[in-house]
Prior knowledge:
Elements: H1 12-32, H2 37-43, H3 48-51, H4 53-65, H5 69-76, H6 78-97, H7 102-116, H8 119-130, H9 136-147, H10 149-164, H11 169-172, H12 174-188, H13 193-196, H14 205-224, H15 234-256, H16 270-299, H17 305-311, H18 313-329, H19 336-353, H20 366-388, H21 396-434, H22 442-459, H23 461-499
Amino acid sequence: xxxxxxxxxxxxWLVAVAVILPTFIEVLDTTVVSVALANIAGNLxxxxxxxxxxxxxxxxxxxxxxxxxxxFSALFGxxxxxxxxxxxxxxxxxxxxxxxxxxxxxxASIVQGAGGGALQxxxxxxLMESFPPxxxxxxxxxxxxxxxxxxxxxxxxxxxxxxxxxxxxIFYINIPxxxxxxxxxxxxxxxxxxxxxxxRGRIDAxxxxxxxxxxxxxxxxLNKGQDEDWFNSHFICWLSAISVIAFAAFVVREFWTRxxxxxxxxxxxxxxVCSTILISMVFFLLYGIMNLQPIMSGGLMGYTSYISGxxxxxxxxxxxxxxxLVGLLTGKVDNRLLIGPGMVLIAIASLLMGNFNLDxxxxxxxxxxxxxxxxxxxxxxxxxxxxxxxxxxxxxxxATGLFALARNLAGSIGIAVAIAMQSRGALRHQAYLxxxxxxxxxxxxxxxxxxxxxLAPAMGAAQAEPGAxxxxxxALLLHSNMLAFADEFRCLALLCFLSVPLVLVFKKxxxxxxxxxx
Length: 518
């Protein structure tokens, strides 16, 4: 229907609230479980390693649905499909909270991820269409509060609920939010004419199959790689080979078939591909740091899961400080002038985290996380806007699905790489520091003597020396782990700095007067 523009039947901000709420709870669930894994494992008589499959199952099913969301929207109608997805997500959340054992919880989590997979791309597409071009920056600023603040608040909410109530409540809180979202979408969201008149083609079953194999094997590799010693394991090598072959088959299939599951030709748009690369780098770094900080503060500094979550709260405060301003500026100034400084701020924050040490107070977390939050606000809002600025309306759902897929995959990879680098870095520093624990090292002799003197009255002379040696070795492990964390924060900063020149590749875009349907 070329030449027509879509205008919502109600105030677009009511539409925004209706689609942002389910997006918020869906993204929140990607991180809220992480702080409760130990409690879940203990309550359901499982190991933590087994409990991690709750997250893995969720991420696998979530990622598989993302590229197919545009096709399902065309088949069932976008509003109807959105309501069904929220209903599935809400019922699966109830099942997760009531799970009697771990296998049931993993299955319910997989269903929950499938229901939540389409919420991000559909919500973003509805949001972009409901606002005129001049106000899309403000709309995307509101959307970012749901997409980026949710994983920041997840550890805080999960830690508080787990410590004060039960891990089951991290799933139960989704139920009232899901019901409220369904009511609002029923009242305020309507399908535009081009969605109602869209051709209902056949699903690309083969494309969907190879997509599922690719993402399923990739997520398993990322989840189990560190435990299996990565490519020293035949299991990981075989899964990696299958994942690469399935990815290649998916790309070939989507370019070959006449009705692809995900139209990869959207990557021919320079702004879209550059935005996808940069948002992937941002989420790679964000999810890596969000998983490293709780491990560091809880494992090395003795913080509870709730306090560890609070230590990351300044990141959200930094976002709240700049997001309204960025929403007003997006579309009025060259977006490159926002994205570039935002990437620099994120890199500077990561560099400051490289100065973390065992003697610092909890206040030392404030400024690095606050600065990173400001960088996230400057970066994510313009990137999401620029990515879709030159995308046709009928490709909006397809583009947002691929954009969200890249973002989520980057986050998963960031978690896996961060944990692997930290573990191996700790071993490297431990091997170096152990070289100084010799009878010929004067500080070592002094430390052993001091330890024996302090422990002898409590343990006796015979046990004082082994006790002193044990305390010294424990201190060595703490310091080697802390040095590994600092190294990784600096590496992430370097990657972010190296990504900044990509901003110059963007084409400068102008706001369109309407959304043209082709």
